[in-house]
Design goal:
CATH topology of chain B: Glutaconate Coenzyme A-transferase
Distance between the termini of chain A: 16 Å
CATH superfamily of chain A: Glutaconate Coenzyme A-transferase
CATH class of chain A: Alpha Beta
Low-confidence stretches of chain B: none
Distance between the termini of chain B: 21 Å
CATH topology of chain A: Glutaconate Coenzyme A-transferase
Helix content of chain B: 10-25%
Number of helices of chain B: 4
Strand order of the largest sheet of chain B: 4-3-2-1-5-8-10-11-12-13
Strand content of chain B: 25-35%
Radius of gyration of chain A: 18 Å
Low-confidence stretches of chain A: none
CATH architecture of chain B: 3-Layer(aba) Sandwich
Mean pLDDT of chain B: 96
Structural class of chain A: alpha/beta
Order of helices and strands of chain A: HEHEHEHEHEEEEEHEE
Number of strands of chain B: 13
Mean pLDDT of chain A: 96
CATH class of chain B: Alpha Beta
Strand content of chain A: 25-35%
Number of strands of chain A: 11
Number of helices of chain A: 6
Oligomer: heterodimer
Number of domains of chain A: 1
């Protein structure tokens, strides 16, 4: 019998090694897998590469992971926010590496990784400082730059409901990076509000088919 | 000199958004355009975090942390609205499926080059978000900004000095003093809404501004 359900956040993240690359879903608080990030903080792996849209807020969650010196590099589109003081301090002190990627290129690089695409030409960023050093090509009269897929060892994402096969549905704009990060990671770990019986999710409405998901943990503990 | 306040500037843009348009409003001043869209037009608002068919802000106490816009503010969903993941959302933008995008700017050049993501200061934390995708994706890219900086320098310029967001992408610039069309390197006065006149606007911007 297939079951991807883990009893605890701790167990679901136990094998993350030092140096791992980890995608973390969420756009602001919507879709942020808070309990998984806290479990990663407790788990202790260091020298991490984090892929997220932002670079942490306040001093909890991702910001706490940064503050603990556990992150070597962050790949994101929008690190600067009113309360991103932890990242700002590390960046100005040269203690963290930043790869800044336009948001759509970030999403498409993740999508490309999950779809087995070796690279793609995008018009986003052409003529800007973020295109410097990148291969460019004119296609049908328009300029594009080459971007490469972005894979990760793990993805930590949040969904509304899952079944034991890992089929997922999300909630409103909390969907954001979840579906594509699940496809682009070797191990996708999902925290959900509730776990339902196999067959209970409408097959026409499943957003992430279970083959993209390796581990599921219920945030409330109900199973 | 008469000038539009920020609410009037937003209303001026809203008046030009046609019935049936799919529109993305950037963070900051452009977000205010939503408050002035004519009630008799059906206009779909897209937000890059993954929603189309956005409605107004919820009533106090009815905010849903899972239903937000690109500025991370709570919003509502209208009947017919839909959610989608980030790659689909940016396909809508990059793929030319949006009719109009309204953005703020530090500078716009007469060629339509846009600078709105980075001041270029050495110790500034760089953050780009969806700005570059929005700049190049929509069928029409409008900028909404004050024409002059606080110290009187024109933000409509011969050549941008701030780091660029996109090349030759802006077609129309709404300001507190006038509305301009950018066509093949020419700046055309599209609406002299404050009665400033092409000669004075040319003096203020240092550009050769043609009457429509």
């Amino acid at each position: 019998m297939i079951s991807k359900i883990f009893d605890s956040f701790r167990a679901a993240l136990a094998d993350i090694p030092d140096g791992a690359s980890i995608m973390i879903g969420g756009f602001g608080l919507a879709g942020q897998p808070t309990e998984l990030i806290e479990a990663l903080l407790d788990q202790g792996a260091k020298d991490l590469v984090i892929i997220n849209n932002n670079a942490g807020n306040g001093d909890t969650g991702l910001a706490a992971l940064l503050k603990a010196g556990r992150v070597r590099k962050i790949i994101c589109s929008f690190p600067r926010q009113s309360d991103s003081q932890v990242f700002d301090g590390l960046y100005r002190a040269g203690k963290i590496e930043l790869e800044l990627v336009p948001q759509g290129n970030l999403a498409e690089r993740i999508r490309a990784a999950g779809a087995g695409i070796g690279g793609f030409y995008t018009p986003t960023g052409v003529g800007t400082p973020l295109a410097e050093g990148k291969e460019s090509r004119r296609i049908h009269g328009r300029d594009y730059i080459l971007e490469y897929p972005l894979h990760a060892d793990y993805a930590l994402i949040k969904a509304r409901s899952a079944d034991r096969w890992g089929n997922l549905v999300y909630r409103k704009t909390a969907r954001n990076f979840g579906p594509i990060m699940a496809t682009a990671s070797r191990v996708a770990v999902v925290q959900v509000e509730n776990i339902v019986e196999l067959g209970e999710l409408d097959p026409e409405a499943i957003v992430t088919p279970g083959l993209f998901v390796q581990r599921v943990v219920a945030a409330g503990g109900q199973q | 000199m008469k000038r539009l306040d920020r609410e009037q500037m937003a209303a001026r843009v809203a008046a030009d958004i046609p019935e049936g348009s799919v529109v993305n409003l950037g963070i900051g001043l452009p977000t205010k355009v939503a408050n002035y869209l004519p009630a008799d037009r059906e206009i779909m608002l897209h937000s890059e975090n993954g929603v189309i068919g956005m409605g107004p802000a919820p009533l106090p106490g009815h905010e849903d942390p899972d239903l937000i816009n690109a500025g991370k503010q709570p919003v509502t969903l209208l009947p017919g609205g839909a959610f989608f993941h980030h790659a689909d959302s940016f396909a809508m933008m990059r793929g030319g499926h949006l009719d109009v995008c309204v953005l703020g700017a530090f500078q716009v050049s007469r060629h339509g080059d846009l600078a709105n993501w980075h001041t270029g200061e050495a110790d500034a934390i760089p953050a780009v978000g969806g700005a570059m995708d929005l700049a190049i994706g929509a069928k029409s890219v409008y900028v909404l900004m004050e024409l002059l900086t606080r110290d009187g320098r024109s933000k409509l310029v011969e050549q941008c000095t701030y780091p660029l967001t996109g090349l030759a992408c802006v077609t129309r610039v709404y300001t507190d003093l006038a509305v301009f069309d950018l066509k093949d390197g020419r700046v055309v006065l599209a609406d002299d809404c404050c009665g400033v006149g092409a000669a004075e606007l040319s003096r203020l911007t240092g550009l050769d501004i043609a009457s429509a």
